[in-house]
Structures
1.
Amino acid sequence: MLVQEKLIPFLTEYGKKNPENKFRISTSFGDIDVLLYNDTPLHRANMILLIKEGYFNGTFFHRVADGFVIQGGNSDNKETSIKRNNMGSYLIPSEFDAGHKHSRGAFSAAKYAEQNVSKASSPFEFFIVQSERGAHHLDNDHTVYGRVIKGMEVVDEIAKQPIGEGEWPLINIPMTVEIIK
């Protein structure tokens, strides 16, 4: 179980031993391939860790805002809550210094707004910018740590799904996530 006090040394070491930087999100709408940036090492290492632990399998794209973003990594399944508890309660320090922007296809970390003055990232949730214009009002507010390299048409299709309260799609959009070469 990860704790905040040991997070940076743990993820730094994990990142050195696990250099992968590409993964695939598979959905019923198709696949989305993502390249993670090496200059956001804590976010990259955390994502690779969660993928290898199987965290994302069975989570959903749980927020769909057509013309803005699609957000994933959560679900209302009990298993997701159990997985989170097993991983630990921690936030990833922001890595804005890398200078990546919220352009279309940006892969970025969600964060909790409440009492989060350091703008630290949620380790479990991410979003993909769908807007053609980008979402530059989020620059230096959320850490961009990758980009979609294949499958933006899948992102666009997911973004079109009908939504209910809280922009949650009316039909669950589960995902499986795996490392690719």
2.
Amino acid sequence: MSLHVIVGAGPVGTATARHLAERGEQVRLVTRRGTGPVDPAIERIAADAADTDRLTALTHGAVALYNCANPAYHRWATDWPPLAGALLTTAERTGAVLATVGCLYGYGPVDAPMTEDTPLAATGTKGQVRNRMWTEALAAHRAGRARITEVRGSDYLGAEGNSLLPLVLPKVLAGQRVFLPVNWDAPHSWTYVGDVVRTLVAAATDERAWGRAWHVPSNPAVSARELAGRVAQLADAPTPRLVRMPYPLLWLGGLNDPFARELRETAHQFARPFVLDSTRATETLGITPTPLDEALADTVRVLAATIRTPTPAGGAH
């Protein structure tokens, strides 16, 4: 039994804690309020992970430190730097492998399927924040100060998330019209949370993965229209009514809505083909994606539970 420390109890952090506990590992889950799944095998700790000394003490003796945190979408530029700095310093002090849950924002607009070698060319704030985090961690790894890795997935299935998808599927299940700035017919990659967890733990515990970023194995891209239609079939809901919102309306919405304002930066992901190539992780780490219909069935279950029990504003991350 080895100690694994997880920062953040959002969908990925919670699922990672449960996955490791089921494997018989010692799990310590760190959040500001000590939240997380109630499980005798999971130790929940209330602490500010940006406090480097406190996080170092909590990580002492751990084999891995998982960055599953998720600051508020509109606060990435202010909240990520101190938190990322504390996580990296803690990894340097303790020797724990720092395994970070990343995203695809760092690539910026693309014209071809994204691989781990695609240039990190983002010009937006969120993409640049994530790129600085990765660049600093990679420099520490190459200097021999830390062992690090990162896994990157596309929009999540099986969980709520910071994307347009949570705005789409509840309306599909309710038989309501969906009016969003989405090219409903453009191919798009979708990543299942369970596959994020398996890839994250594999990358943290396999030294072949250290010092590199990995794309989470994901199914072949399908359009948002096809995805919504398959969800409707699984839930016995009406055929989705999907209407594309003109981009200027999204821009105007961002004048008063922080979330809509942040979506301006990533609107390209839903305006054109957005395809993830995850061949490397499958070939090296032996992970294959969960079948799409299985991932969608889990997504429907999660959404149904969320609709019945609304999440309080500012939920745990």
